[in-house]
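Predict both folds.
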Amino acid sequence: MRREQIEEKIYRNLPETLQKLTEPFENREKDIVLLSSLGVLSNCLPNIYGLYDGDTIYPHLYLMVIAPAASGKGVMNYSRLLIDQIHDKVFNESKIEYLVCEEAKKKNDTEKCPDIKAKILPANISSAEMHSFLESSEYGMLIMESEADTLSNMLKNDWSNYSDVLRKAFHHEPISISRKSEKVFVDIKEPKLAMVISGTPDQLMPLMKSRENGLFSRFMIYSFDEITSFKDVFATKNNNTKVVFKKIGDEIFKLYGELVDLKKQIEFCFTDSQKKSFLDMIRPIRDDIIDNHSQSFISNLHRHGLILFRIAMILTVLRNKSDMNKGEKLYCSNLDFIIATRLMKNLLRHCQFIFNSVESGGGLSIQDETILDDLTTIFTRQRAVEIGAKHGVPKRTIDDKLVQWQKRRLIFKQSVGKYKKL
């Protein structure tokens, strides 16, 4: 299955904010900047909500970029500049408030000091700290990590396994925790969390555990195998990239302040015709998955419907950011509905590719089974590459699979470039 790039037509029709952010980039880097910026900005729009399947939904998105080392996925980190100023203000003001309280506490021992707040949260954090920060955060937080290992290593430990928190926060489900020994009770009514993570294919499984893991289906997945050439690191546009992001960051900081000051939340809505188009699009995809693919993928489709809704919400706010005080409802334009729909379809194909590439439980992935079935008992590397190409799998991925299949004793290497299925 081909993992295509985002079509150029989408970029030409994005809200001006996103056009400016993506303009300095091209190819895969451009896609990564767009998606990571959407992920970061999803945590910068307080007091915006929508109703989806009877629930109140906020813009927060989870993104995972999966690509080899030296593939250019590091451009994701530019998008952090969009939220840095907001984080600094929230963190510094709460820190000052905490220090003043601690000083006063010396005179009045019964006073309870407020928690320090943050907009950006490191993945390297204990479960208790995660609950504490989420409880003190009114408008949500962002976990941003360029190495997926950092997060997966946390989820391995008893003291830092907050996988359930990540799953519940995606849908803003209530989170409660009680520790009798520490006299702690935390009750978070509507947790809000965004995540922007990148990693190599090898880092995916330790994080997700399996494709049936509920965490996997909550992510927008963008993946590719190409390695970038060495670019001109002295090009003028490279020197101006941070300036562009910081300037847009100033605009987002101003917008954030205006939204925080709203007396009443703004409801994001689809029009009646968009609701019909949404259902007319999703239902045939669902039928196709049931008839022709793994039914285990249905949960991914259902959550991609919610992802579409959230992307449309973000696009609509950005396109109307100068008129956010004019009403209690904000309707999606047909243009932003189409952009969100096309982005969702693209991401769903990327998600399905990864879903088919990873193992379910102890068995082979659907993709591995298909390729192995198409190969004769004795085959060459070149033939495996040809079969892989037929299924949209690049040459270097096939080479990785040949190594893994040997380790699992599925094939035996008879000589250079020649294998036998066992």
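Second protein follows, with its predicted structure tokens after the sequence.
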Amino acid sequence: MNRTAHDPPAPFMAQPVRLRVPHTLALLFFIMSLAWLATWILPQGRFDTVLNERGRPVVVPGTYHPVAERVALMPWVLFTVVPRALADAQGIIFFLLIVGGAISVLRGTGALDAGMHRILRAVGGRPGWFVAGATLLFAAVSATLGCSTEYIPLTTLLVTLCAGMRLDALTACGVLVGGYCVGYGAALMNPYTVIVAQEVSGLQPTSGLGYRLLWFFPFVAVGIHHVWRHARQSLSLPAPRQSTEPVSGSMNAAQAAPLLTCRHGVILLLVAMVLVSMVWGIVARGWYLVELSALWLGLAVVCGLVGGLGVNETARRFAQGAGDLAAVALMVGFARSIALLLEEGQVLHTIVYGLARPLEGWPPVVGALGMLVVQTLINLFIPSGSGQAYATMPIMAPLADVLGLERQVAVLAYQFGDGFSNILIPTNIVLMAILGMAGVPYERWVRFAAPLLLKLTVVAAAALVVAVWSGYR
């Protein structure tokens, strides 16, 4: 007999349990609470420090010693430390807000979308060129400008273009997500990850660019090969009956795509000039966050006017883009609070000492690979690149000093662990949004992306080994 709506549920039928991932801010506050508790439980001690060539303190290996007087942090410090941490990280927070506003203005002009649409249309109809060119495009934009959420609206276009070439939606997601995650992992001057991590670690922003550029193309090649291997399998399948409809849809999408005008070309040229100026200013003029923020602010103003947005629309777009990063700014503040609690409670060096003890006697390469594993796991819980940098680099940077590693290697391990794992972790909002728009089940994506993450991790490990052996600084 069938059950009715009024029948009580069967007692033996267990309801499915859904795993709910806490909000990143809630998770960071929980970690803050653990950090405060650690100041009461762990021994308090510190290393001797010396100033490096940039005037930043670095720890001296073998000098750890207990402190003479124990510090007691009261519970209410959990709330007073947040505004102090926000003030302490104000330079990078304002930099992130200004970059977010500038990117929003650039998108408002249509230049970024028109440029990417133009390239995608140019390689449309040629599956091999499409996979290679689009993956390289998204990787390059993410590695330099830090774009990620900006790609979500492109999902429908890529799925339509792929359908017109008899490629499935998984290929479109592979090109889009794979390119963006490779760009974040092999970041060249990503303002949300590399520059933040280097600032926290006391390194010059964008320093070590040559070595990262050297490995950027092998990482992109791995991504292209993996996606194209799946695309070839998609092409080998029989064409569906309605194969003419996607082609028509592709044509419609192409026709509806924004045209690349001369005005757009000028804006894209200005963006390229700003990126080059960043590197030149930092290397030749000693620019830092104030000058870099001013550069991006100027780019937003000029591009808004050149792009025809007008004064009011440029200001509205800028405020909207900065507002979109308000949550990220709070995450940076909460993450910085963790380090402040550990520093003021005098247990930060104790944790570094405890992590270094098991690695004593091992080659420095082992420590570098261990950092890669740790950063990859942490990204599951702190998917914000900036938040993860502020949460982990205060520990990883001095740990690198103790293990005889260059701090640049620790930053490299951070960006590899943070960027590449974005391709798989379900807490990555961009990933889940793109899969949802493309209609690709997450379970199917895991079967596709897990081998790619493994390949990228192997290459990342090789890059770290070479970095250690070559004394990468």
